[in-house]
Amino acid sequence: MRHARLPVDLGSITSKLFGEPSHTLSLLDPPNVGHKPVTNSTAGEPGKPNNVDGSTAPDAPTSTTTPITALPESEVRTNSVRSSAYCASVKVEPRGTLALIVGSEANGNGPCKFLVSADNVRLLSPVWAELVSKASMIVWRLGRRQIHLPDDDPDMMLLLMRVAHLKFNTVTLDLSFEQLLQLALICNRYECTEVLRPFHEKWSSLHREKILQPGFEQWMFVAYQFGYEEDYVRIANHLAMNCRVNPIGELLVPGSDTQKLEGHFPPNALQCIQFVRSKTLKCFLNTTYALANSMVNLNTCKAHSGPANPESSTASTNPSSLISDSERDECTLLNTGSFLRHLSTIGYWPAVQRISSVHDSLSEVADLLMHVRVITLKTYRSDSVMGEAGVEAETPMQRHEACNAGRMLAVKIREAMETMDRPVEYDTLEVIRKNANRWEAAEKRE
Question: Which of 80, 238, 338, 340, CA to CA, is 20 to 30 A from 162?
Answer without folding.
Answer: 80
